[in-house]
């Protein structure tokens, strides 16, 4: 996940189906290790989702366990106080990362942070580098649907996004699917 100006711009990539699902669930539910790592500016480690994590992310943990993810780790993409997003890692078995694995993950997060900053260098303020626009367009329908819901209900876009997410969660659907239905006028969020 990466953010610019505190706006979620999407995922830059996933190593496998489970990683893509982890990102999609966090975006849909608005909770998870990636979001916590970004907001706190520090790594998040939950070596066993059956343990204490359920109270931390009550909607996310059962969905992750159902998909076979048993441990999650997130590392902020940041330079000083500038935060760009977070790097998520997952494992199908409970267990903590070894010291070398933590060190490697921190190095990867630092390399990704510098790569993002390098890509963004020279881009106009408020704009995304062309290489990052692909991730931005991954959630364009969600942003469009949020605007439509905001206009229909007379609420802010942030609240509209929360309502989209809540509807998706209640129906057990990805937020992208719900957004497409809103845009196609097949669904009206109340």
Write the layout of secondary structure elements.
Blueprint: E1 2-4, E2 7-10, H1 17-29, H2 33-40, E3 44-46, H3 53-56, H4 60-67, E4 71-79, E5 82-91, H5 99-120, H6 130-138, H7 140-153, H8 157-171, H9 175-183
Antiparallel strand pairs: 1-2, 3-4, 4-5
Structural summary, described in words:
This protein has helices spanning 17-29, 33-40, 53-56, 60-67, 99-120, 130-138, 140-153, 157-171, 175-183, and strands at residues 2-4, 7-10, 44-46, 71-79, 82-91. The chain is an alpha+beta fold. It has 2 domains: 2-129, GAF domain (Beta-Lactamase, 2-Layer Sandwich); 140-183, Orthogonal Bundle (Arc Repressor Mutant, subunit A). The protein has a 3-stranded antiparallel β-sheet with strand order 3-4-5, sandwiched between helices. Helix 7 (140-153) packs across helix 8 (157-171), helix 7 crosses helix 9 (175-183) and helix 8 (157-171) packs across helix 9. It is globular and about 50 Å long. It starts with a strand and ends in a 7-residue tail after the last helix.
Features:
2 domains, two-stranded antiparallel sheet, Arc Repressor Mutant, subunit A, Beta-Lactamase, alpha+beta, 9 helices, three-stranded antiparallel sheet, 190 residues
- Cα shape: globular
How much strand content do the residues show?
A: 15-25%
Helical fraction equals: 40-55%
Low-confidence stretches: none
Number of strands: 5
Which fold does the CATH topology of the largest domain refer to?
Beta-Lactamase
What's the quaternary structure here? single chain
Mean pLDDT: 84
- Can you say what the CATH homologous superfamily of the largest domain is? GAF domain
Radius of gyration based on Cα positions: 17 Å
Q: What is the succession of H and E elements?
A: EEHHEHHEEHHHHH
Main pleated-sheet profile: 3 strands, antiparallel
């Amino acid at each position: 996940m990466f953010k610019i100006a505190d706006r979620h711009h999407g995922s830059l990539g996933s190593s496998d189906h489970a990683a893509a699902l982890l990102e999609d669930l966090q975006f849909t539910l608005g909770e998870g290790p990636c979001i916590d790592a970004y907001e706190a500016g520090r790594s998040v480690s939950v070596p066993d989702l059956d343990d204490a994590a359920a109270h931390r992310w009550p909607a996310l943990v059962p969905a992750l366990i159902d998909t076979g993810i048993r441990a999650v780790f997130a590392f902020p993409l940041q330079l000083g106080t500038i935060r760009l997003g977070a790097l998520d890692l997952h494992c199908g078995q409970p267990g903590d990362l070894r010291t070398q694995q933590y060190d490697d993950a921190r190095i990867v997060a630092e390399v990704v942070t510098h790569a993002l900053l390098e890509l963004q260098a020279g881009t106009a303020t408020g704009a995304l580098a062309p290489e990052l626009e692909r991730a931005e367009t991954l959630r364009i329908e969600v942003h469009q649907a949020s605007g439509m819901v905001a206009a229909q209900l007379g609420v802010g876009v942030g609240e509209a996004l929360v309502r989209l997410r809540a509807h998706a969660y209640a129906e057990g659907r990805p937020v992208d699917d719900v957004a497409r239905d809103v845009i196609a006028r097949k669904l009206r969020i109340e």
